[in-house]
Amino acid sequence: MIERAFQSAHTVTPRPGPAPTIRRRSTHAALVATVFCAFALYIAWHASHDGPSRLIDEAPLTAALGEAPGGQPGTAAVAGAVGAAGTLDLVKRGEYLTRLGDCIACHTSDKSRPLAGGLAIQTPFGKIYSPNITPDRDTGIGRWSNTDFLRAMHEGIGKGGERLYPAFPYVEFTRVNERDVLAIRAYLNTVAPVHYRPPPNELRFPFNQRWLMIFWNLFNFDEGHFVPDSKKSAEYNRGAYLVRGLAHCEECHTPRNFMQGLKQRNRFSGAVQAGWQAYNITPDRTGGIGAWPDGALAAYLLTGVANGHANAAGPMAAVVQNSTQYLTEEDAHSIVTYLRAQPPISGGVTRSRDTWGQPAINDVTALRGTPVTTVNGAQLFIANCASCHHWTGAGVGASAPGAYPSLIHNSVAGAATADNLAMVILHGVTRTTKTVDVRMPAFGSELTNEQIAAISNYVTQQFGNPRAAITAAQVGVLRAIPQ
């Protein structure tokens, strides 16, 4: 009886109503529930992967850090630095590591205010402006604690708890040990503070919602310190620590997924950055750098030149100028050792980029006395390029420092596409190292898209890969990409 009365009191007679509205509410509720579940899964995953918070890394890193010549400790010297002399050593070490991380490249928009940020970084989702990392207390990181700095480097979280965008490569920097991070902080504390507030980011909705980085991190970020491989040599481990940490080579040389995360299955197989092709640096002998001698690869890092193979241009020229030229010989060879041990990826390439081409023999004489009424690649090459690269394409100055490089057996001319070649003609080359100052003029303001396409196609046909070709319209697209 009581049961029937209870059912009667709680029975609601259905009323006709707007069923579509109910369905929409159900859909919204399901969506909210899905997002909540995803968030809960992320929190659970994060908690399971988080170790105890500590300021200084106590893990043994001897195999990864190696030693400097003469038995003196390398990176480990930072941990033992005490007193005034120790502080100087810490700052000096931090300066080296800051250069290795190429911090100045992204955090400098005006050379008169280094590390003050403001550089516009183009992404598929909008524009991000790099922050000020000078020790200015109001606009820089002067008020940041060491813990704040460590959290940004290792977790991608700013001082105020905001999620940082992965244009800042915390995906790689998470592997840098605490001693080295604190050395970088010590050095940054010594640079001149600059009172400058960069412009706000220009990201489209919903990409301007920083909290969404929680879900990006779930799929694209594996937080954790570098752990040496006990089965590998100290040199290999040192190279792995550098390449996958501060040097963040994957950020340019690894293709990305639709979320702009790194495709780990295709590590170092090449990608496009601001219109420039960052080439395959796996040890595949045709698609990558497997045929380069170790010395040539180390020389490329230190000088930007691997004779008979490649000359650094575009973003890589800036990397050499700002970063890798300062590598110690030991660190440069450790990087080579690590790259040599990676899985080779051909990328479908059947002939190495640096094996194409032959000298031009009769092009100059063939043009003599011949009226040219159309855009002619050979004529444009002789008029604009031959004074430095010689009309044969063999270059001027042989292998001397500062020589004008040969276009024969040249990676840019022998690439599968002529994009980098056209970009070099458009923007020139600027690369200053300890031994040489390289300057190739930019022809973008002097030549039309059609003319640049004609020169590029002449170079690839004569000195490089004859299957690589580019149109004037494609040159126009490259020209429009901000640099």
Task: Explain what this protein looks like in three dimensions.
- Residues 1-22 are annotated as: Disordered.
- By secondary structure, this protein is mainly α.
- Among the domains are: 52-229, no CATH class; 353-479, Cytochrome c-like domain (Cytochrome Bc1 Complex, Chain D, domain 2), CATH 1.10.760.
- It is built from 20 helices and 9 strands.
- The strands form 4 sheets. A 3-stranded antiparallel sheet has the order 1-2-3, with no helix packed on it. Strands 4-5 form a two-stranded antiparallel ribbon.
- Residues 1-25 and 39-82 have low confidence and may be disordered.
- β6 and β7 form a beta hairpin.
- α18 crosses α19 (449-463), α18 (419-427) crosses α20 (472-479) and α19 packs across α20.
- 40% of the residues lie in helices and 6% in strands.
- The chain has helices at residues 2-9, 19-49, 62-65, 83-100, 103-106, 146-155, 170-173, 178-188, 213-220, 234-243, 250-253, 294-303, 314-322, 329-340, 363-367, 377-384, 386-389, 419-427, 449-463, 472-479, and strands spanning 120-123, 126-129, 202-203, 271-273, 276-278, 305-306, 310-311, 429-432, 437-440.
Give a nutshell description of this structure.
This protein is mainly α and 483 residues long.
